[in-house]
């Protein structure tokens, strides 16, 4: 069952001369880990803003076509109603943090939903621990580093325990090891609790391995949509200029040179190393 | 040239960000400063244009101690592009944003016009000349911030996380540009977490941890040393990760380049004629 579904979605920002997304029709299934990628300025962020109703309710502008999220028609339901189902982690954490302490920022959404105090305490601590910022809970978000702020933004969305989490380059300010840990936490929530994840990323080296659905956009349109292994191995993906994981690229090059590595296209270095060991062992 | 002599820096809130850093960066070098969040990378580079002054030790840029000149004077030679573009953009149009620095440095109007056009084209922003920077995507805003600094042609360029939000093609353009800087004997310093970008450029890598430099050398050496990487909590580039796992096959360990990797693997395979080839 699709938890996000759009049909011919086209959107133009107020004052914009051309649509930022055009004729977008996608289905993201319940419990999927979907990755959206594509060249900078291709409409990824704009599409995410439609998923929680910021478009059209906050940004206004002109929205055409159909969009439903968690069986709610986005154009007919307000942001606060959609927020119960969809959490959005923004690209720039400064745009979403405002409270005087980390803890208060993480609790804010729950307060708005009227979650009982005990439950709120439990969920806030859970989210702070998962994202590794429990020790920062008394600090003011504005005095934290970019990477720490991103953890706070992620924690505040996780605490809401929405059915769908949309993350727009959520770890761009984090070092790779910290980013990896965050992606593992999100992957775990996806696997264990069936939370649907929509992740916008350029760094496929880090993230392709978690995805079971990948969407590639270019100039406001969906150009490729399907399973990550087939899509990232395709000539089209390479030509659009998305950053194919190095392991996948190396596999393609070796196959072309006549090396037979098997039919499972690797998405990570571990997967390719396993294939190579099999072929190269003396 | 940048000379750093045993500097220490503590923020007003008591965080000791630099604990004895010494290094020399020569003209024309391309240096990537890497390390975990909080290792002191951004604090270090903010000393190079005088935004921060050391509590102890000294920093010399082209032989002049940074405490003896203003940030304004230093910035003519040292261009700094922040991690978050929203910390530096404020003009109504992209064009005005790029012209701002040039006007401040007193360039003539006809030069300003030419430089703005050059920077717009270089970074693929020509179509946004009259657009507000705040209408652009995150990756595009990042490029506007970069264009506004490149326009005045500083001798030393410091880029804090330049690849954030950039797609593959933009990164490739950035790489080409840095190589051009190098050819003109200009210095580029990047602070970055992007190991794949570093693997593709093979610059000199300074690895920082806990306010100190823990490794200094060519990327191919630093990014393939498992002990150093574990100590500084760095994830190696994918190609290096693959070769680190092939230790029981007679493959070398220090490989970060994908074309090099292909050559080595094919060579190994050719030595085994009856395998699946």
Using brief descriptors, characterize the structure shown:
heterodimer; A: 282 residues; alpha/beta; Rossmann fold; 12 helices; 21% strand; globular; B: 277 residues; 2 domains; four-stranded antiparallel beta sheet; 11 helices; 38% helix
What's this entry about, in short?
Chain A has 282 residues and is an alpha/beta fold. Helix content of chain A is 40%, strand content 21%.
The figure for the number of domains of chain B is 2
Task: Predict the CATH topology of the largest domain in chain B.
Answer: Rossmann fold
Please compute the radius of gyration of chain A using only Cα atoms: 20 Å
Main sheet properties of chain B: 6 strands, mixed
Largest sheet of chain A: 6 strands, mixed
CATH architecture of the largest domain in chain B: 3-Layer(aba) Sandwich
How far apart lie the N and C ends of chain A? 48 Å
Q: How far is the N terminus from the C terminus of chain B?
A: 52 Å
Supply the CATH class of chain A. Answer: Alpha Beta
Shape of chain A: globular
Report helical residue fraction of chain A.
25-40%
């Amino acid at each position: 069952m699709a938890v996000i579904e759009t049909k011919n979605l086209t959107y133009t920002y107020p004052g914009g001369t051309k649509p930022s997304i055009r004729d977008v029709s996608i289905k993201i299934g319940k419990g999927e880990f979907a990755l959206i990628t594509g060249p900078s300025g291709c409409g990824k962020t704009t599409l995410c803003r439609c998923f929680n109703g910021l478009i059209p309710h906050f940004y206004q502008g002109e929205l055409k076509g159909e969009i439903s999220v968690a069986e709610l028609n986005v154009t007919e339901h307000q942001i606060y109603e959609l927020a119960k189902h969809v959490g959005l982690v923004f690209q720039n954490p400064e745009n979403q943090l405002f409270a005087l302490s980390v803890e208060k920022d993480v609790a804010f959404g729950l307060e708005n939903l009227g979650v009982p105090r005990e439950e709120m305490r439990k969920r806030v601590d859970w989210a702070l621990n998962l994202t590794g910022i429990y020790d920062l809970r008394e600090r003011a978000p504005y005095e934290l580093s970019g990477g720490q702020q991103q953890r706070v933004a992620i924690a505040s969305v996780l605490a809401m325990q929405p059915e769908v989490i949309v993350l727009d380059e959520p770890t761009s300010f984090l070092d790779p090891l910290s980013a990896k840990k965050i992606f593992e936490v999100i992957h775990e929530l996806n696997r264990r609790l069936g939370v649907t994840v929509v992740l916008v990323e350029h760094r496929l080296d880090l993230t392709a391995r978690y995805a079971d659905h990948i969407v590639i956009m270019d100039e406001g349109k969906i150009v490729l949509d399907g399973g990550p292994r087939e899509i990232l191995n395709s000539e089209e993906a390479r030509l659009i200029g998305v950053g194919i994981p190095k392991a996948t690229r190396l596999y393609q090059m070796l196959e072309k040179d006549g090396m037979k590595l098997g039919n499972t296209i690797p998405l990570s270095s571990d997967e390719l190393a396993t294939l190579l060991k099999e072929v190269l062992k003396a | 040239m940048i000379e750093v002599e045993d500097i220490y820096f503590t923020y007003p809130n008591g965080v000791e960000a630099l604990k004895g850093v010494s290094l020399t960066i020569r003209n024309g070098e391309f240096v990537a400063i890497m390390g975990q969040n909080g290792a002191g990378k951004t604090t270090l580079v903010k000393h190079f244009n005088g935004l921060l002054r050391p509590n102890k030790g000294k920093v010399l840029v082209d032989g002049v101690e940074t405490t003896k000149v203003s940030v304004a004077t230093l910035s003519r030679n040292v261009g700094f592009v922040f991690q978050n573009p929203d910390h530096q953009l404020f003009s109504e149009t992209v064009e005005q944003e790029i012209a701002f620095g040039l006007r401040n440095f007193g360039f003539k109007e006809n030069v300003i016009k030419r430089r703005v056009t050059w920077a717009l084209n270089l970074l693929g922003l020509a179509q946004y000349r009259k657009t507000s920077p705040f209408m652009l995507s995150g990756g595009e805003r990042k490029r506007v911030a970069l264009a506004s600094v490149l326009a005045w042609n500083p001798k030393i360029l410091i880029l804090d996380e330049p690849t954030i939000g950039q797609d593959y093609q933009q990164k490739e353009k950035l790489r080409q540009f840095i190589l051009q800087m190098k050819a003109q004997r200009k210095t580029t310093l990047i602070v970055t977490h992007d190991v794949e970008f570093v693997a593709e450029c093979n610059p000199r890598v300074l690895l920082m941890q806990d306010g100190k430099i823990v490794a200094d050398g060519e990327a191919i050496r630093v990014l393939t040393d498992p002990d150093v990487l574990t100590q500084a909590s760095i994830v190696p580039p994918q190609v290096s990760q693959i070769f680190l796992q092939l230790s029981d096959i007679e493959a070398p360990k220090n490989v970060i380049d994908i074309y090099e990797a292909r050559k080595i693997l094919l060579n190994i395979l050719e030595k085994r004629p009856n395998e699946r080839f």
